């Protein structure tokens, strides 16, 4: 198991304890305009890792009985958005969502993170792919993954 899978397994195993797990805040930075190629490379790297981590988390959730047959949104889902000047994807779990996007305009790229639990007066972006595990764990914790009845 990867370190991320172990982290998700700990969350699922915490459902029998009286202590609520802490939702980690992923490392972010203020969104900045950067070169188009650099922005595209970053978005693709983050998107690729997101797909891997979503699969890993869903495998742990399923093996722990957290995913119940017939419950449509009781697994992490990743959706790509098709937009003319933007690369974007959403990760959802139990009605909550985060969106990671990069917009391209005038030969610059501008990344942005939005979603439940990420309100900010200044636009923020992930500090890189290493911030993704905390982003997904936060989504799981705030969606109540540990409070699911045993299957």
Structure report:
This protein is α+β, with helices and mostly antiparallel strands and 151 residues long. It is 33% helix and 28% strand. It is built from three helices and seven strands; from the N terminus they run αββαβββββα. Helix 1 packs parallel to helix 3. The longest helix is centred in the N-terminal third of the chain and has 28 residues. The protein starts with a helix and ends in a 9-residue tail after the last helix.
Set down the secondary structure blueprint:
Layout: H1 3-13, E1 28-30, E2 33-35, H2 36-63, E3 77-83, E4 86-93, E5 96-105, E6 108-115, E7 124-126, H3 132-142
Antiparallel strand pairs: 1-7, 2-6, 3-4, 4-5, 5-6
Can you describe this structure in just a few lines?
The protein is an alpha+beta fold. It contains three helices and seven strands. The C terminus is likely disordered.
């Amino acid at each position: 198991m990867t370190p991320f899978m172990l982290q998700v397994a700990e969350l699922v195993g915490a459902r029998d304890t009286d202590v609520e797990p802490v939702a980690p805040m992923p490392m972010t930075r203020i969104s900045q305009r950067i070169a188009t190629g650099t922005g595209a490379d970053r978005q693709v790297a983050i998107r690729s890792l997101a797909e891997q981590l979503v699969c890993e988390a869903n495998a742990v959730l399923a093996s722990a009985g957290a995913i119940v047959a017939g419950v449509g949104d009781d697994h992490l889902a990743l959706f790509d958005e098709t937009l003319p000047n933007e690369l974007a994807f959403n990760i959802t779990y139990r009605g909550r969502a985060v969106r990671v996007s990069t917009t391209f305009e005038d030969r610059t790229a501008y990344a942005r993170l939005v979603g439940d639990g990420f309100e900010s007066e200044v636009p923020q972006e992930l500090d890189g792919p290493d911030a993704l595990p905390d982003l997904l764990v936060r989504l799981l914790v705030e969606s109540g993954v540990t409070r699911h009845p045993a299957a």
